């Protein structure tokens, strides 16, 4: 029997790693038989007992404080163990509280610890989300907090090794196989991702903004950068640092910018030296032709250096333009499926799409037609409860929107219908408006299609217009979010 305990300073990182472990076949802890208690309930009872003890004797809570109550707590934990004997692999996640972590590791030497962490850039994004005024003092405050909790995390890792693996939460979420491989190397435990997990996307490296932010953190706060290097070097699964079109182009772009700035600096320095020599030349005119000739040669030499520096600046400027164009192309590749947040997918019909029965893109969306059944190919998603929102820019008749039928077409060809609610605009034109609905995917879909069936369409030319197309409704965006 293997027991896994996931802990760390960031609750979001801990929760993500625990869900990954569950996807690898680890059962979530069942309540004890006698009292129906979970580890969290035992933690609460331990905390309440510690408060009573420390209040009575007027001492601080330390890792030695639980000793007076250790017998009672061990009895509760033993009952919890008995309730989970039928599971070959089970565990739970918890907040990174030192005395609780030490208690469980001491209670059972078979407990295996998985410590989860995030990078300072990820931590800053979480802490500064929604804050309109961000000051250097606020950034420094959060980085100091990250450093403090990370030093504590590393100390716990060194103390618990080799019963511990240290992992970056974002990497193991998208590549659970790396976590399985690390656990196999560390403990000889073979965990295989379920079949439904094999289609998960490869880990996505930080975007250009994240890389820039990380670079600024490391350069502005050397202590934080050194601690991050130690953390990444120690971790069994460090943060993702692989290649990616957007990331590589961004690196190329930043290199060109740095080279261009260096060339501009050289040109500025050369110009300053020319100014100095001009001053010296004016002074030397009264001292003789020989000194004048020497200074003139030096002046011409510096002019030549300036010309070379300017040519080099123009060269790197052209390279920068080329890198920027490559970055825009790489970004357009992923414009069809935009993951704005975890569990959220947005399809922008003003961009290129993968689907059928759509006219060409316009500035505010695409018309469905000439047929009445239109489709959109969707990316792989996990099983779960989803909400779909159709941002409709226009329609030939309101009855077309009201009579619209939306469904999910799976790989076997079956259609799961989605009931829609239509929220027309209060404007006299009724548009733009939103049609939304919810549906439940019982299993993960590797390749699936959203199918929109309209009750009919119309040709503007039949009513005296110039447009000969048969049009149904104009869809601007589609938003899919996992609840």
Summarize the entry for a quick read:
With 483 residues, the protein is of the alpha+beta class. It contains 13 helices and 17 strands.
Uncertain parts: 55-63, 195-209, 242-254, 326-340
**Alpha plus pi helix count:** 13
Give the SSE string: EHEHHEHEHHEHHHHHHEEEEEEHEEEEEE
Average pLDDT confidence is 80
Class based on secondary structure composition and strand pairing: alpha+beta
Number of strands: 17
The assigned CATH architecture of the largest domain is 3-Layer(aba) Sandwich
Number of domains: 3
Return the CATH class of the largest domain.
Alpha Beta
The dominant shape is flat
Largest sheet: 7 strands, antiparallel
Topology diagram in text:
Layout: E1 2-7, H1 11-23, E2 27-28, H2 39-57, H3 70-83, E3 89-93, H4 98-107, E4 111-117, H5 120-127, H6 136-160, E5 164-168, H7 169-174, H8 176-187, H9 208-220, H10 222-234, H11 245-284, H12 289-333, E6 338-341, E7 344-348, E8 355-356, E9 366-367, E10 373-378, E11 384-395, H13 398-402, E12 405-409, E13 415-418, E14 420-423, E15 433-441, E16 448-453, E17 473-482
Parallel strand pairs: 1-3, 1-4, 2-3, 4-5
Antiparallel strand pairs: 6-7, 7-17, 8-10, 9-17, 10-16, 11-15, 11-17, 12-13, 12-16, 14-15
Helix pairs in contact: 5-6, 6-10, 9-10, 11-12
């Amino acid at each position: 029997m293997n027991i896994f305990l996931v802990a760390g300073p960031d609750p979001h990182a801990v929760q993500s790693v625990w869900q990954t472990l569950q996807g690898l076949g680890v059962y979530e802890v069942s309540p004890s038989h006698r009292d129906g208690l979970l580890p969290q309930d035992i933690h609460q009872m331990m905390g309440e007992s510690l408060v009573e003890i420390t209040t009575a004797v007027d001492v601080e809570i330390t890792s030695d404080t639980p000793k007076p109550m250790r017998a009672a707590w061990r009895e509760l934990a033993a009952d919890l163990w008995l309730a989970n004997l039928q599971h070959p692999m089970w565990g739970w996640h918890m907040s990174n509280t030192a005395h609780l972590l030490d208690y469980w590791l001491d209670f059972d030497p078979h407990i295996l610890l998985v410590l989860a962490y995030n990078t300072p850039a990820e931590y800053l994004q979480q802490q500064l989300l929604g804050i309109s005024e961000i000051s250097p003092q606020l950034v420094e405050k959060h980085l100091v907090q990250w450093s403090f909790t990370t030093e504590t995390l590393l100390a716990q890792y060194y103390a618990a090794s080799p019963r511990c693996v240290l992992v970056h939460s974002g990497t193991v979420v998208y590549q659970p196989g790396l976590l399985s491989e690390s656990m196999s190397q560390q403990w000889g435990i073979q965990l295989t991702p379920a079949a439904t997990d094999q289609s998960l996307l490869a880990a996505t490296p930080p975007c250009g903004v994240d890389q820039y932010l990380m670079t600024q953190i490391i350069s502005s706060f050397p202590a934080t950068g050194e601690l991050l290097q130690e953390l990444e070097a120690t971790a069994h699964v460090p943060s993702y640092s692989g290649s990616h079109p957007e990331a590589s182009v961004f690196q190329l772009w930043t290199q060109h910018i740095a080279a261009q700035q260096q060339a501009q600096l050289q040109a500025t320095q050369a110009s300053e030296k020319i100014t100095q020599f001009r001053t010296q030349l004016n002074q030397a005119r009264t001292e003789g032709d020989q000194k004048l000739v020497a200074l003139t040669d030096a002046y011409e030499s510096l002019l030549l250096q300036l010309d070379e520096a300017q040519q080099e600046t123009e060269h790197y400027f052209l390279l920068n333009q080329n890198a920027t164009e490559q970055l825009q192309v790489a970004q357009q590749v992923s414009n069809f499926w935009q993951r704005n947040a975890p569990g959220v997918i947005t399809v922008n019909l003003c961009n290129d799409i993968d689907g059928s029965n759509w006219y060409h893109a316009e500035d505010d969306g695409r018309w469905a037609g000439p047929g009445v059944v239109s489709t959109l190919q969707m990316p792989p998603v996990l099983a779960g409860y989803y909400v779909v929102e159709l941002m409709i820019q226009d329609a030939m008749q309101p009855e077309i929107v009201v009579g619209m039928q939306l469904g999910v077409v799976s790989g076997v060809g079956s259609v799961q219908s989605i009931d829609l609610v239509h929220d027309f605009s209060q404007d006299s034109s009724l548009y733009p408006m939103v049609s939304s609905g919810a549906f439940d995917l019982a299993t993960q879909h590797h390749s699936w299609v959203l199918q929109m069936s309209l009750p009919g369409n119309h040709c503007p030319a039949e009513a005296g217009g110039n447009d000969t197309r048969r049009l149904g409704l104009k869809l601007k965006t589609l938003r899919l979010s996992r609840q």
